[in-house]
Amino acid sequence: MTNTDGEAVLVERAKNGDMKAFEDLIKITSGRIYNLGLRMLHNKEDAADIMQETYIAAYENLPKFKGTSSFSTWLYRIATNFALMKMRKEKGRKVSEERLKDISKNLYNTAINDWTDSPVDHLKKQELKTALDKAIESLPPKYRSVFVLHDIEGLPIAEVADILSISKAAVKTRSHRSRLYLREKLSEYFKESGVKNLIRT
User: Domain range for residue 123?
Assistant: First the structure.
């Protein structure tokens, strides 16, 4: 039995009033939901709030869950929506969408297939991690959500499109623009830090 099959069995039991089954669903998914909130909001308390709100909403709406997507995907959708609502209320400067488009246009020929070609390889270095977190936090909500779900969480493009209710083409575009923007911001960091040749172009 796969994890997805196991989830499906627990979901059916939970829909029939089995609270232990719902508690088991929380146990096997809560880590991913908390990490999603933490990566999108960069705040442990907010991440915990998002996780709590997600499971309350999931429990209340469980009878409406039709199983057209996996339970985990459904939870991601709920958690992402809560996170996006909170992100839109955030204060602080965000890079404009026009700026992201300009970066994408100017660096169109810079191929970025995945984060193995970028400074994420060096995330263990705390200063760089802080710089990357700050850069991710400056992304507009709709770009940050795509980047976290696809590039950090590693969800397939089709699943991200399903979670966010956007097209696969939009996921690809937002992911690419986010990568280019983050590469530019981290290039500035390396320049300021005197670190060279860590970013392949």
Answer: 97-193
Instruction: Identify whether the C-beta of residue 51 lies closer than 8 Å to the C-beta of residue 37.
Output: yes
pLDDT of residue 198: 41
pTM to 2 decimal places: 0.75
Whether residues 75 and 145 fall in one domain: no
Residues 6+ apart with CB under 8 A from 32: 72, 76, 153
> Please, how many CA atoms are within 13 Å of residue 25, restricted to the half-sphere of its CB?
29
Q: Which residue has the tokens 């880590």?
A: 31
Residue 183 pLDDT > 60: yes
Same domain, 102 and 79: no
Give me the helices (H) in the chain, please: 3-15, 19-41, 44-61, 71-88, 97-106, 126-137, 141-146, 157-164, 168-193
Q: For 109, list phi and psi in degrees, rounded to 5.
A: -85, 5
Which of the listed ranges 66-70, 117-121, 153-157 does the model predict with the highest average pLDDT? 153-157
Q: Is 192 exposed, middle or buried (0-12, 13-18, 19+ CB in 10 A)?
A: exposed
- What is the percent of the chain where pLDDT is above 70? 77
Same domain, 102 and 160: yes
